[in-house]
Amino acid sequence: MQFIENEEQEKKGFRWKMQQFLDKESVAGYVFSAPFIIGFLGFTLIPMAFSMYYSLTDYDMINAPTFVGMDNYTRLFTDARFLKSIRVTLVYVGISVPVKLIFALFIAYLLTRKVKGDTLYRSLFYVPSLIGGSIAVALVWKELFARLGLINALLNTIGLESINWFGAQDKAMIPLILSSAWQFGSAMIIFAAGLKEIPNTYYEAALIDGANKAQMFFKITLPLLSPIILFNLIMQTISAFMAFTQAFVITGGGPNDATNFYALYVYNHAFNFYNMGYASAMSWIMLLIIAFITFMILKFSKYWIFEEK
Amino acid sequence: MNKKKIKTFFYHAFLISFGFIMIYPVLWMITGSLRNNAEILSGNMSLIPENWRWENFANGWRGFGGVGFGTFFKNSFVITTVSTIGTVVSSACVAYAFSRIRFFGRNVLFVAMLLTMMLPGQVILIPQYIIYNQLGLVGTRIPLVLPHFFGQAFFIYQMMQFMVSIPRDLDESAYMDGCNKYTIFSKIIFPLLKPSIITTIIIQFYWKWDDFMGPLIYLNKPESYTVSIALKLFADAGSTTDYGAMFAMSTLSLIPVFLIFLFFNKYLIDGISTTGLKG
Amino acid sequence: MSLVACGNSDSSPDTASSGDTGTETGGEASGDQITLRMAWWGSQARHDGTVAVIELYESQNPNVDIQYEFFDFDGYFTKLNTLVASDSVWDVFQLGGNYPAYINNIHMLNEFIEDGTIDTSNTTQQFLDTTNADGDQVGISLGVNSYGIAYDPQMFADAGVEEPADNWTWGDFEAAAKQINAELGIFGSSIMDDFLAGASIGVGPDYNFFDADDQTKLGFDDPSLLVDYIRMRKELVDLGAFPDPGAAAEVTDIEGDFIVSGEAAMTWIATNQFPTLVDAAGRELKLASVPRRDHDDPFGLTLNSSQMFSIPTNSEHKEEAAKFINFFLNDEEANEILKGERGVPIMSTAREAIEASATDAMVEVLNYIDYVGSNANPELNNIENPNTAEITSQYELLLDQVIYDEITPEEAAQQIYEFAKNIIE
Predict the structure, then answer these.
(1) Which of B20, C72, C218, C368 is most buried (CB neighbours < 10 A)?
(2) What's the alpha-carbon Rg for chain C, to the nearest Å?
(3) Domain check: are A105 and A186 in the same one?
(4) Where residue B235 sits, what CATH number does that domain have?
(5) Both C218 and C332 in a single domain?
(6) A63 falls within a domain
């Protein structure tokens, strides 16, 4: 008996030790993040290293790369088209992201309560994001803002003159910004889910204390939603920096590079001009810029983020 | 009483008109599927087709070179569904690690994750392709689906932000009840992530559905093409474009992603237990 | 003498020549299962036609299985570049004028022509030269084209403008555009391929933009040769006789061209697109040659290959690929299916096959190609430089800047000259 008991205890001992081991913070952390680590090492890190290497070469993808050191980077700083594309992209990000987020939050908030037709409304506002990236819709957008398109027709009916959207350097970006803002659906869904997470009890308590709608929004909703707001802000900012399809299909970067988003410029150099090395260098510079802005946002977030203790 | 009625009226009026403006371009595209090239390009913005050209659907459906849209839809479905499942499961795991567990190197990994989103796909496209080519996986669906089982940065981060609002008291009381990290995840965190998981499903599904770069590079038989590639094949700057057929197929392509949204949206509206702060 | 595999009439005595069916030439290892990979770009009509030809070939050659892919233009080149980088290009692939960039990956076809695998007896050296670089046959053209100005004779008549003469000049063009605009209130001309018109061809018949022998040099050294076209473009836009950048952006493809919608009386066209243009416009259009600088200048055009099939160096089935290319080019049934959609076929037999059912527009194209072919200026360089895309993009940017009054035509000419010179070195 003693013998068997000891064996059982031993078995239990080993299993128990194993469990203790797995439950340690460090081990569990690695177990759970293993998918990301493996994926990152296998599918991302090596290509990233490659692209870093390419950025130091002259590489037309057809012949082997030739090492040129920092030439690509120095050329970037004198490349007027690149500098303009940074400026253009920053303007686009700076305007389209806030517009998009404000719409998304506003509509998500309007649709939190159960009202008749909220599924219908949610659908109406969400559908644009579903097909926003498609060619068909990009072409539709082009028709809308054409000289004889609907937007100008509407302007005319209220007595304003038609605008040559794609022909005016200062206005060509507007259709693109609107197209981006139009696709606020996914941000809206995320806000909606976040709003759902806020317990009704808080609102009920506030009502009892005599708070009005505005106070409840600013003192309860916004703070509790702040992690989600931060998330959407960062995600939309990063994806706005990557904006490509709309510019590619609708304006082609023009007129006179007024909508030459940097992702479009990278694509042109990589796949049309056979300058993969130069394109890679450009991407890394932009990565630095995006990373810098993202980390600034993160750093300042602690001033307005509310974390539940 | 009246004030409330007026408020409700304005509420709905606003939503309907704004909603209509939002949906107008989509409606125009749907209408375009019943028009021919001349009518589409004439700049006519009305939503009623002049002639109801249902043949656009037949023309579009037959696809290209003998491969029809039935095949394309099937391919898209398989790839998109498997990818979505992979994303949900793996991203939740990683998000749990990053937000609930303190371990050495966590911050470094988190930063690495953010960085992966900041490099445009085009520059890592070629190196990734070379790797898959060496592994002999080009021409299969594996390169399209596999990365999703290793977490997707966007959704990892999203789930992390949602986990912030799941109170840690739950973790602690579960610990005291004898749970370990793994069971906390499976029994508490994962179920409470429902809203986040649902948004992940909806968004990942349509992102994958619309993705054409991946299928373009890795698929090499027209029978394996997805809807996203097929839609692009209608338009070529150098030869004729059948806009009617393209709009028709784009309209059809919209239906699955929209249905996914409708189906899961129910869960977002109906009461989901928000905090589970039950005894 | 009904050859089972051919399946069509024996009207052409050339059906007895070698290589076009694959079942009668001796000496090949029949029965060896071979898989060929191939790809092309285009849209629905071309995809359907090409696949039909592939299936025809497979039915006649059961030991060959062809795995094909097709894409739109951008998708195709994205994928091609990826395959080039990983040394696994399709056994038969389509290329256009941008082939110089890929020259190191192309297996030259000279040997297949010499040994008869590819039958070139029905074409001329001139046509073969459209895809020949320094004696190397980089591919065989699937269709030749050239450039021209398509115009609406009725609109010209309505505006009281004479139809373009064979040797009309840019001055004539400018005057015509202005008068049409003044009389009819529409654009004199729709969009042009500005770089080709203003720089490549526009640099004059005595010079080539890119040096014909040395890819790292320009073929001219006087930037002022570029000024006139730029100045003309700006003037026409200012008058409303030519689309401004906003209007130009609205034209994404042939169907959307302004001549189709009746908003312009002329447009630049590549000849293989002319039938499509006429089809879309739904009325009679004619082809005029590209204007020259002076009335007695030599002809300024050559024939180009619109597209060709090439074989990559990494192919393991070069001979079978060559056989397939030969079939594609020479087989009459195949060409009846393809209808010359890629351009005017270079094989006379193929041309005859489509002539029978050619539309008026196609006849116009065939006549025009004959005209260009017989007048072509042999000094002209029709090879694209690998840096053409980047230079074209810069040229168009500078043109925009002139139109927006940011720089003068002279400055633009100087800048593009410097830019091009630096890039190609």
Answers:
(1) C72
(2) 22
(3) yes
(4) 1.10.3720.10
(5) no
(6) no
The verdict on residue A65 lying in a domain is: no
| In contact, C326 and C137? CB cutoff 8 Å | no
Question: Which pLDDT belongs to residue A3?
Answer: 52
B185-193, long-range: CB within 8 Å, 24+ apart, which pairs?
B185/A32, B185/B92, B185/B93, B185/B96, B188/B276, B189/B92, B189/B96, B189/B100, B189/B163, B190/B92, B192/B166, B192/B273, B192/B275, B192/B276, B193/B92, B193/B159, B193/B162, B193/B163, B193/B166
- ipTM > 0.90 (yes/no): no
Q: Based on the structure, what is the number of domains in chain A? A: 2
Q: Which burial class, exposed, middle or buried, applies to A282 when counting CB atoms under 10 A from its CB (0-12, 13-18, 19+)? A: buried
Q: Give chain C's domain count.
A: 2
Q: Using CA atoms, how far apart are residues B18 and A308, in angstroms rounded to an integer?
A: 35
**Chain A contact for C73 (CB, 8 A cutoff):** no
Mean pLDDT by runs of 10 across the 309 residues of chain A is 57 74 77 89 86 89 85 92 94 95 91 77 85 77 84 88 88 92 89 83 85 83 88 91 85 88 89 87 90 90 72
Among residues 212-231 of chain B, which lie with CB inside 8 Å of chain C? 212-213, 216-217, 220-222, 229
Decide if A81 and C397 are in contact by the 8 Å CB cutoff: yes
Q: For the residues of A92-103, what is the DSSP string, one character each?
A: HHHHHHHHHHHH
In this complex, which of C104, C246, C390 lies closest to A168 when CB atoms are compared? Answer: C246
Rounded to whole angstroms, the Cα distance separating A156 from C187 reads: 23
Residue from C393, C399, C423 whose CB has the most chain A CBs within 10 Å, to mutate: C393
A66 HSE (CA, 13 A, CB side): 6
Residues A146 and A274 in one domain: yes
pLDDT tens track for B225-260: 999 888 887 776 556 678 888 889 889 988 888 888
Q: By the CB < 8 Å criterion, does C390 face chain A? A: yes
Do B71 and B32 fall into the same domain? Answer: no
- Paired sense of beta strands C304-312 and C106-107, if any: antiparallel
Range of the domain at A213: 72-303
Q: Do A166 and C245 touch (CB under 8 A)?
A: yes
* Residue span of the structural domain in which C103 resides: 34-142+307-358
Q: Clarify whether residues A47 and A190 are in a common domain.
A: no
Whether residues A122 and A269 share a domain: the answer is: yes
Distance CA C109, CA B227 (A): 37
Structure tokens at B206: 């349509």
More reliable by pLDDT, A24 or C60: C60
pTM, whole model, 2 decimals? 0.84
pLDDT at C209: 86
Q: Based on the domain organization, do C184 and C214 belong to the same domain?
A: yes
CATH code where residue C41 lies: 3.40.190.10
Where in the sequence is the domain holding B21, given as residue range(s)? Answer: 2-59
Give Rg (Cα) of chain A.
Answer: 26
Kindly state whether residues A27 and A156 are assigned to the same domain.
Answer: no
According to DSSP, residue B67 is labeled B
- Cross-chain Cβ contact C51/B42 below 8 Å: no
CB–CB of A127 and B203 under 8 A? no
**Residue C369, in any domain of the structure:** no
Is C11 an interface residue toward B (CB < 8 Å)? Answer: no
